[in-house]
Specification:
The protein is mostly beta strands and 117 residues long. Helix content is 3%, strand content 32%. The chain contains one helix and six strands. It starts with 5 loop residues before the first strand and ends in a 5-residue tail after the last helix.
Amino acid sequence: MGWRFRKVWGVGPFRWTLSKKGVGWSVGLPGMRYGISPTGQRYVSIGIPGTGMYWIKYFPARQRRQVTGYPQRHLPNPTNPPTPTPPPGAATSPPPAAPPAGASPHRRWWQQKGLGP
């Protein structure tokens, strides 16, 4: 059996526990507590004060929401943006004019915004 380490601090109904796995906390009265272990596991414990006998129930881990990995249909496609379709009977504008001969088709961002030469 290996060595264990645990140090507990308390203020009123609050307790903080330092162990080799990290810091956990709990809140409650003598005989009943709710807490989160150093590994993030939520639990409730009920016991008989002064006897060392207690029952503890660990709750299943919560599923974390995934920040990345949304389906592609929700992401805009900057290389091929959707073109709006004009309503029926609306006048359409002619396509943009081609750049003059000898002009570079690649423009810097400030040129695209019309801010410089």
